[in-house]
């Protein structure tokens, strides 16, 4: 079953037009993901693109994998990159603890399945799925938490606390190591995770990858390899100092010509905001500098460069010298990151969600500036997993899934309307209308006796309205109590499918399903998830 994104609350117009009315947004993108007849042209461009660093990049990937036993499929995919007829199907994500929300896996599965589909369709080319570990990011709050449902189907958010002050700059999250506080997170997880036959094995799996002393990047990377290596996924670490060295031409161009870059990005953002929205606030320079383990934005000050919030300054030559000596100290922002990715890899497709599709509309001018072929931006698969007990509740009360993709209050109102013998809202609306008519006629007649009686009548009307509202509230409360069991069941179902007023995939971690059904649930998701419908999929267990 599929649900059109237009019917799901909270979707951005730019994303909806990208999916269903592409002509409205065509000027913001290089290609339409639905126009498969244009793929060959893109492939030819990639074949003819100069990549002098190709062999060096592949050797770096092999080095990143040197101490890891990998599948024959992954090994074959790495070797395939030596050919100029092999293209990358890339995706990436912040290093959310324990894998982050479910959509991280959905993006990955989309990349793998699209690679498989393209291999079958285009015999002359090879397609390799690559996951770019977004460890340069410094949003600690974003990556340290995850959510599960407890025994009562209540959404529980758990966080890793490193013991440091909230507001400090922690630098690149990928390089940040876990401390012994990780044990407290596991204790909380064990308390809230329901008892099942799979609980111990899931906890042991997570503990094998997330240990004090390990970094966010290493732990996340090893988890992704464990889950997706058999499918040939290459998990790539861009924080590698040798990788940063390969990226020095990109960073150098940004330092030298940032003014031109910023002008074009600002113009594009302004154009977007005439109809849609700009996903990212444009900065003067799309680079950060790592200083004393802090990730600091580089800002232009007259003819020099300053680290934001610091007095330290560089001349252009000094900053370029730093780049040549210490490329690992430089970190791209969200707009420059895709340029780095597609400079290194011959990327034919990038798998992105709604937010990424939006910021690609902003950053596309950079592809022309850097003379890099922009990939097709391919929407990731999107899904909600429906368990049998949840499906039974929905069927019992004659609802559809869209009924649960609403606020809790809207859902309760609908249930009361369906099951109540009295339409309370209509009853009070009609009564209030009748009372207003009576009091209006009364006020007109009494004002002929004395004008002060008109004001007294209005005050009486206000008091009556207050009493009516109180009576209505009381009636609704009593009606709710009559349907308490129904409301409780539906609230639990809604927490499962639309937790925190958001799609399940954006809130719940895979741990919840792996704990109930075992790790094989991931293989089931892989097999069930479709990548060519471009609608929200309902996966019924």
Task: Characterise the protein shown here.
This protein is of the alpha/beta class and 541 residues long. 50% of the residues lie in helices and 13% in strands. Strand 8 and strand 9 form a beta hairpin. The chain is globular.
List the helices and strands and how they pair.
Blueprint: E1 2-3, H1 13-20, H2 39-47, H3 54-64, H4 72-80, E2 86-93, H5 103-121, E3 126-133, H6 140-143, E4 145-149, E5 155-159, H7 182-192, H8 199-209, H9 216-228, E6 234-236, H10 241-246, H11 248-256, H12 258-273, E7 287-291, E8 294-301, E9 304-307, E10 313-314, H13 316-325, E11 330-332, H14 337-344, E12 347-352, H15 354-370, E13 376-379, E14 382-386, H16 388-396, H17 401-404, H18 408-419, H19 424-447, H20 452-482, H21 484-497, H22 511-517, H23 521-528, E15 536-540
Parallel strand pairs: 2-3, 2-12, 3-6, 12-13, 14-15
Antiparallel strand pairs: 1-15, 4-5, 7-8, 7-11, 8-9, 9-10
Helix pairs in contact: 11-13, 12-15, 16-21, 18-21, 19-20
In short:
With 541 residues, the protein is an alpha/beta fold. The chain has helices at 13-20, 39-47, 54-64, 72-80, 103-121, 140-143, 182-192, 199-209, 216-228, 241-246, 248-256, 258-273, 316-325, 337-344, 354-370, 388-396, 401-404, 408-419, 424-447, 452-482, 484-497, 511-517, 521-528; strands spanning 2-3, 86-93, 126-133, 145-149, 155-159, 234-236, 287-291, 294-301, 304-307, 313-314, 330-332, 347-352, 376-379, 382-386, 536-540. The strands form four sheets. It has a five-stranded parallel β-sheet with strand order 6-3-2-12-13. The chain has a five-stranded antiparallel β-sheet with strand order 10-9-8-7-11. Strands 1-15-14 form a three-stranded mixed β-sheet.
């Amino acid at each position: 079953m599929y649900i059109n994104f237009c019917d799901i609350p909270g979707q951005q117009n730019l994303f909806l037009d990208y999916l269903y009315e592409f002509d409205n947004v065509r000027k913001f993108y290089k290609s339409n993901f639905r126009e498969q007849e244009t793929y060959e042209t893109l492939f030819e461009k990639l074949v003819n693109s100069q990549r002098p660093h190709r062999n060096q990049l592949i050797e770096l990937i092999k080095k990143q994998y040197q101490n890891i036993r990998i599948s024959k499929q992954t090994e074959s995919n790495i070797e395939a990159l030596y050919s100029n007829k092999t293209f990358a199907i890339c995706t990436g994500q912040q290093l959310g603890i324990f894998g982050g929300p479910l959509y991280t896996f959905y993006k990955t599965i989309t990349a793998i399945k699209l690679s498989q589909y393209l291999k079958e369709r285009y015999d002359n080319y090879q397609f390799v799925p690559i996951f770019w570990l977004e460890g340069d990011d410094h949003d600690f709050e974003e990556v340290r938490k995850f959510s599960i449902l407890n025994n009562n189907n209540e959404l529980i958010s758990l966080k890793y606390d490193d013991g440091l002050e909230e507001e400090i700059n922690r630098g690149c999250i990928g390089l940040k190591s876990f401390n012994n506080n990780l044990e407290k997170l596991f204790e909380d997880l064990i308390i809230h995770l329901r008892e099942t036959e799979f609980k111990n094995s899931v906890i042991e799996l997570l503990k094998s990858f997330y240990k004090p002393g390990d970094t966010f990047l290493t732990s996340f990377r090893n988890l992704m390899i464990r889950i997706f290596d058999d499918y040939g996924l290459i998990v790539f670490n861009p924080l590698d100092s040798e990788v940063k060295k390969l990226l020095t031409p990109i960073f150098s161009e940004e330092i030298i010509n940032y003014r031109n870059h910023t002008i074009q990005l600002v113009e594009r953002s302004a154009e977007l905001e005439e109809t849609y929205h700009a996903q990212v606030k444009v900065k003067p320079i799309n680079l950060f500098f790592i200083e004393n383990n802090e990730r600091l934005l580089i800002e232009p000050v007259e003819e020099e460069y300053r680290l934001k919030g610091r007095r330290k300054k560089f001349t252009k030559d000094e900053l370029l010298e730093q780049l040549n000596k210490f490329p690992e100290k430089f970190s791209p922002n969200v707009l420059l990151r895709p340029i780095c990715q597609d400079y290194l890899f011959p990327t034919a497709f990038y798998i992105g969600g709604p937010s990424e599709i939006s910021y690609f509309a902003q950053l596309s001018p950079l592809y022309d500036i850097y003379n890099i072929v922009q990939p097709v931006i391919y929407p990731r698969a999107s899904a909600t997993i429906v368990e049998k007990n949840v499906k039974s509740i929905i069927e019992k009360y004659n609802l559809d899934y869209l009924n649960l993709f609403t606020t809790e209050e809207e859902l309760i109102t609908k249930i009361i309307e369906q099951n109540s013998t009295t339409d309370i809202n209509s009853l009070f609306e009609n009564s209030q209308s009748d009372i207003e008519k009576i009091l209006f006629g009364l006020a007109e007649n009494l004002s002929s006796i004395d004008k002060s009686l008109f004001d007294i009548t209005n005050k009486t009307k206000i008091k009556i309205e207050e009493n009516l509202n109180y009576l209505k509230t009381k009636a609704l409360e009593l009606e709710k109590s009559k349907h308490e069991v129904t409301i409780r069941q539906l609230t639990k179902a809604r927490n499962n499918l639309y937790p925190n007023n958001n799609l399940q995939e954006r809130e719940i971690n895979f741990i919840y399903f792996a704990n109930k059904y075992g790790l094989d649930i991931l293989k089931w998701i892989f097999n069930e998830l479709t990548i060519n419908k471009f609608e929200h999929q309902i996966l019924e267990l």
